[in-house]
Specification:
The protein is α+β, with helices and mostly antiparallel strands and about 160 residues long. About 35% of the residues lie in helices and about 25% in strands. The longest helix is centred in the first third of the chain and has 18 residues.
Amino acid sequence: MEKTVEICSVRIAEHYQVISGLMHLLHLHEHSLHNKTAAWVNIEDSYMRHVIKMQDECEGLCLLAYVSSVPVGFIFGYVEEQDDSRIEIHEGKELYVSDGFVAEEYRRMGIYRLLNSMLERHYIEKGIKRIIRFTLVNNTGMREFLDEEEYVVTRLLYEKWL
């Protein structure tokens, strides 16, 4: 039996526990890939305040995916206004895809691809010309997805922890 996926736009503040729970799972996954990822318990309050603020003040959109009424994934992005001091061609507002995650047991069902497509379409219709996102270098699944979606690596972040 094929499972039906429902995608809804939600206010993070009104779905705090659900989004925070999925963010927690995202951070656990990221910690498994990079041991410098902060523990969710240490950053939940400040990070959730940040995403709520970005949704309220920066044209943020949070899409939540449900399967059989169970929340299984989300994606969140918001608009950043770049000024003309950047070294790239200045195109105005940009979409920053901040966070996204699908619970492991619901992966390989096209849910993240659907979430991403809906998020991009929403902002493209608003005139966005550039989409920016980060992923960990060893997150091979996400890197393959981004390659398939025609994203291009333009910069590499190097870190030295002292």
